[in-house]
Specification:
Organism: Muraenolepis orangiensis (Patagonian moray cod)
Number of helices: 15
Pfam families: Oxysterol_BP (PF01237), PH (PF00169)
Membrane topology: Peripheral membrane protein
Helix content: 25-40%
Structural class: alpha+beta
GO molecular function, one term: sterol binding
Radius of gyration: 34 Å
Number of strands: 28
Shape: elongated
Strand content: 15-25%
GO cellular component, one term: cytosol
Length: 748
């Protein structure tokens, strides 16, 4: 058996090799492959098992290392785990002991640093400007590396002192023995050499001690200087941002002051403009005299350039959209209220390792909502906040509310449907399951013109109701219940329930597609959306059929592709949509359709002649360093920001979620267990009350599965869509204005 190389005390290095591990009295010591990495000692039966099956892991940060004899040593973490190990030689055992002590010192130091950074909270990681953030992170990384090197040097210093003292003591005892002849001379020679080694080691230790003192002094000085520079940068950024916003407000106020009187003093000009816009945009023909390039989709339809005669005869602009986006700036008020500054960062995600398979291997085929999961797999947002995140692209609904044609309006509603999936492409963290009665409000009335409210209305099955209303002419409501199954290699999440969007004249509804999380056990997690959506206008019978193509390694299409066709009640196509659910969507007006040749599966392909495509939606870029902040979007970063006046049941008040966001995951796990146990006790009390009600009133037997009633929502049968769902019954915003929350249950 080849001996492993001596471990180099460098942060992040691993140490591997064969050791004999005590199993039981029948089999005795068995040969196992051990891997020491990142403060964790893991073992496998063979090297081939490293990719998929770990037999056990012990954390050295809380472990004790004891040497029994020349080849045997014991590692224990206080009784729960104890490894009796044996090396093949004494030299190999000493190499393992040295590597383990170094790894333990690093693990204890990293854990202390993690606790300190968790206590500091968001203030320890202020916002940095684009370009400056990279330099700051580089300096911080260099400081951390130097700090680790200094800690390693301290550990080596202690080990040399410890082992040198033991060696000198043993040689002194050996010299004291009365041994004559050549053996005595040899012992005297070894003793002299050991004395020289001790003198040299003492000199090196003194030099190391001086170096350590200088390094620690300069390190503190560098950190202070870096903190001063960082604070100055943050203050400069805030000043520049405030100046830019003041400049923007002054421009809008000036434009409103100059344009407004003109429109009031010349009503004839307004009448002329309105009558001209009603005739159709004939002046756009010269500017938009371009047509579609060929776009191919063999499984659904093909679009080709339309004949110019349709373009001139269409009586609309080239994009086919007659929504009037002008006039918003002209109506801006002269008095501009200051907009609240929202946060732009959350604490960085800690790098905690956890064996996923040890938790999930007994959960294959079960409901995800019934699997107890630690917060290590979560993101610091609840499912209610994820529902509210669907409103990130609310501007699409604002534009839809201004459309005169229901078919054009349907294009914007379909684009809004696709946009709600754009935030999921990198978000592999699981949101917190809301507690029964938990709520979440998102009040953006001043900034964006809307406010929304979510409430967890059922626990088994878990269901959440959402209501959002805008002063720009739309209302969004949804009730979502998740059905999820773990299949071993992937996790399927099937949203149940429907989403409804209501305008002044039209009422739309649709359902969500299936979300699949791949590489649950091995490999990098990635998310895919697949299925079909029918966005239906219940007033006119118009319909938009959207198809989310599942990812295929052998497909020549772009990944995450979405295609859609908008048709009227007679099935005639009017618009075509195409794009991806993680980047952008485009749409175009259909001038003529015809049946083409049979496709790859024997189905007849429809060919649409269309005008030039226009971009209808594009994903907002992620903030800087999003990969360290759970890949949150700019809106998601603000969802869990503390706010005054919210209900005591609001997700922002949830303690385990707040602790996780601060990086204190151990405390968050303990708090999560406490909240779940409290919810179980409440549910058992409701069951006892229901049983008592059955005894006193047998006629009510079977009336309710659970006697919990939502506080802010009530269940109705929607007369338009024919679906049963929870709708907002009012009272929340009045209670917030009055500051009266006596009716709210104590769930936290």
């Amino acid at each position: 058996m080849s001996e492993p190389k001596p471990p180099t005390p460098t942060p992040g290095d691993t140490y591997k090799g064969w050791l004999f591990k005590w199993t039981n009295y029948i089999k005795g010591y068995q040969r196992r492959w051990f891997v020491l990495s990142n403060g964790l000692l893991s073992y496998y039966r063979t090297q081939a098992e490293m990719g998929h099956t770990c037999r056990g892991t012990i954390n050295l940060a809380t472990a004790n290392i004891a040497v029994e004899d020349s080849c045997n040593f014991v590692i224990s973490n206080g009784g729960a785990q104890t490894y009796h190990l044996k090396a093949s030689t004494e030299v190999e055992r000493q190499r393992w002991i040295t590597a383990l002590e170094l790894a333990k010192a690093k693990a204890v130091h990293m854990q202390a640093e993690s606790d300190d950074s968790g206590d500091e909270g968001p203030s320890s990681s202020p916002t940095s400007a684009p370009g400056g953030g990279g330099r700051t992170s580089e300096v911080q990384s260099t400081l951390r590396t130097l700090g680790c090197k200094v800690e390693d040097l301290c550990t080596c210093n202690d080990l040399i002192t410890k082992h040198g003292t033991a060696l000198q003591r043993s040689l002194s005892e050996l010299e004291g023995l009365s041994i004559q002849g050549p053996m005595g001379d040899k012992i005297k020679q070894v003793t002299e050499r050991a004395t020289l080694f001790r003198i040299t080691s003492d000199a090196m230790i003194n030099a190391c001690r001086d170096f350590l003192g200088l390094a620690q002094t300069h390190s503190k000085r560098w950190q202070k200087a870096l903190q001063v520079e960082r604070d100055q940068r943050v203050r400069l950024e805030e000043t520049l941002e405030q100046l830019a916003k003041q400049h923007n407000h002054l421009e809008r106020a000036f434009r409103g002051a100059t344009v407004g009187p003109l429109s009031l003093s010349n009503p004839a000009m307004d009448n002329k403009g309105s009558s001209d816009s009603g005739k159709g945009d004939a002046s756009d023909e010269d500017d938009e005299n371009q047509f579609f390039d060929a776009m191919e989709d063999p499984a659904a339809f093909i679009t080709v350039p339309a004949d110019p005669k349709y373009h001139r005869r269409s009586g609309s602009n080239a994009s086919g959209i007659s929504c009037s986006d002008h006039g918003m700036d002209d109506q801006s008020p002269l008095e501009v209220e200051p907009v609240r500054q929202r946060r732009t960062r959350v604490p960085d995600k800690p790098n905690y390792s956890l064996n996923l398979w040890s938790i999930m291997k007994n959960c294959i085929g079960k409901e995800l909502s019934k699997i107890p999961m630690p917060v290590n797999f979560n993101e610091p947002l609840s499912m209610l906040q994820r529902l509210s995140e669907d409103l990130e692209y609310y501007e699409l609904l604002d534009k839809a509310a201004k459309c005169q044609s229901s078919l054009e309006q349907l294009c914007y509603v379909a684009a809004f449907t696709v946009s709600s999936y754009s935030t999921t492409v990198h978000r592999t963290g699981k949101p917190f399951n809301p507690l029964l009665g938990e709520t979440y409000e998102l009040d953006r009335l001043k900034e964006c013109g809307y406010r929304s409210l979510c409430e967890q209305v059922s626990h088994h099955p878990p269901a959440a109701a959402h209501h959002a209303v805008s002063d720009r002419g739309w209302t969004l409501r949804q009730e979502i219940s998740l059905a999820s199954k773990f299949r071993g290699k992937y996790l399927s999440i099937m949203p149940l329930g429907s989403i409804q969007c209501i305008f002044e004249k039209n009422h739309y509804s649709w359902k969500k597609v299936t979300t699949t999380v791949h590489n649950i056990i091995v490999g990098k997690l990635w998310i895919d959306q697949s299925g079909e959506i029918d966005v239906v206008n219940h007033q006119t019978g118009d319909r938009c059929h959207l198809k989310f193509a599942p990812y295929s390694y052998f497909s020549r299409d772009v990944a995450r592709k979405v295609t859609g066709v908008v048709t009227d009640k007679d099935g005639e196509a009017h618009f075509v949509l195409s794009g991806t659910w993680d980047e952008k969507m485009e749409f175009s007006r259909v001038m003529q359709s015809s049946k083409g040749e049979n496709g790859t599966e024997g189905k007849q392909t429809t060919v649409y002649q269309t005008l030039k495509s226009k971009e209808i939606w594009k994903k907002n870029p992620l903030p800087d360093a999003a990969e360290t902040m759970y890949y949150f979007s700019c809106l998601a970063l603000t969802l869990n920001e503390p706010e005054e006046g919210v209900a005591p049941t609001d997700s922002r008040q949830r303690p385990d979620q707040r602790l996780m966001e601060a990086g204190r995951w151990d405390e968050a796990n303990a708090e999560k267990q406490r909240l779940e146990e409290k919810q179980r006790i409440s549910r058992r009390e409701r069951e006892r009350e229901r049983e008592a009600a059955k005894v006193t009133s047998p006629t009510e037997e079977g009336a309710h599965i659970d006697n919990h009633e939502a506080l802010w929502f009530k269940k109705i049968d929607d007369p338009v869509s024919g679906e049963s769902l929870h709708v907002y019954k009012g009272g929340y915003w009045d209670a917030k204005e009055e500051g009266s929350w006596d009716m709210c249950p104590d769930i936290f």
